Amino acid sequence: MSEDIKPRRSAGMRGSPASPLPEHGPISSVPKFRSEKAQPERPSTSAYVRPKVLMGEVTAPPNAFNGSKGQMLAASRNALRAFMMGRRLVPSAWSREAGVPAAPLLAFLAGTARRIPPDIAAKLAAVAKVSIEEMFR
User: What are the DSSP calls for 98-126, one per residue?
Assistant: First the structure.
């Protein structure tokens, strides 16, 4: 009768308690050798990308951007700022007085918009009692 009873197993046991084999394999104190991957050699110590030479030109030729659209936009933006400073106009109050949203004017002054919509510019000019051209001179 005692042969029919199976020995009880604990939760941590792996395998049969009647087996003569050890529960775990031999424990080695020497760590296994892992080969390290070779890091790619960096040509520079900087984390930023170096500029490349494109088509044999490192810089633009002198006077290449004179009269460009970007410079014209910057000049008109500065002219509008000077106009506003000369008349002590604040963008939010000026646009509120004209009944237009302030966002297009602020975007133009900040450089995120290339132009002020013509209808908004006309209303701003009417409140300032000048022509649209005078605002951008």
Answer: HTS-SHHHHHHHHTSSS---HHHHHHHHH
Q: Is the pLDDT of residue 31 over 80?
A: no
Is 1 inside a domain boundary?
Answer: no
105 lies in some domain: yes
The alpha helices in the chain, defined as continuous H runs, are 69-86, 91-98, 103-110, 118-128, 132-135
pLDDT at 64: 56
What is the rounded CA–CA span in Å between residue 77 and residue 72?
A: 9
Statement: residue 110 has pLDDT above 60: yes
103 falls within a domain: yes
User: Which residues partner with 54 through β-bridges?
Assistant: 57
Domain range for 107 is 90-137
DSSP 131: -
